[in-house]
Amino acid sequence: MATAPAGAPTPARGTTRTGEAPARTPSRGPRQRSERKHAAILAAAQSLFVAEGYERASVDAIAAQAQVSKRTVYDHFGDKRALFQRVLEEVDDAVVATVRTAIEEEITDDRELRESLVAFAARVTTRTFPSPAYATFRRLERQRRTVPQAHGPGTEVPERMLEQRFAELVDAGRLRAADPALAARHFTALTVRLALDALDATPALNALDARPAPDALDASAAPGPSEEDLRVIVTDGVDAFLRAYT
Fold first, then answer.
1. Which residue has better confidence, 154 or 172?
2. How far apart, in whole angstroms, are the C-alpha atoms of residue 223 and residue 190?
3. What's residue 9's pLDDT?
4. Which end of the chain has fewer CB atoms at under 10 Å, N or C?
């Protein structure tokens, strides 16, 4: 074991031999606890807003499910309306990210146009629409209209992203459209909108509701559209769209 040279001063406790205090990592315990509480409140609020609706979901119930005090809920979010707004924003962000990824991965420059448009529309209708995340989005969007001052992008941001991609296709000469925004709306109406209508018309499945319909287990109830049915809808829509825009 090495020892200090004779006569060398002994470093003070908590310092290095160069006299510098060692770097210390500040404790993040309180901050981490606060972040965990914040996340727990959001999760509880989303669950109760979806299951019971904005009016019936009380701050007391949200606090109890999140295992925090009612005062903690107010400290983090101010009031129930602001909490609903934050939950809605998170759900909106998740849907926007899903659509952005689908556009970037399916409508690519190295892919035949018809193939890419069918792939994009099929991905949205067969993977995004039936997902629990989209069901949550739909239920909260319906409630948003009744919550004072609550607002969210809804379908506006995904539509603008698709408009931008269509503008790029027009610039590249792959689409003919004087108004790419109108072209994007026509595309949506002919594909994902028709598929969504088909899903919405199936009360037995209640495909876009977070809660099952009362007759969801009724074997005699008419089945909803299959994945293949949805692909046929969007493929026919893409073909109609391309006849008008290419």
1. 172
2. 23
3. 55
4. N
In the predicted model, what is the mean pLDDT of residues 59-71? 95
d(CA 222, CA 20) in angstroms, rounded, equals: 77
**Inter-helix orientation angle 59-66/80-106, to 10°:** 60
pLDDT at residue 5 greater than cutoff 60 = no
**CA atoms of 28 and 242, how far apart (whole Å):** 56
* pTM, to two decimals: 0.74
User: Position of tokens 């146009």?
Assistant: 113
CA distance 141 to 153: 10
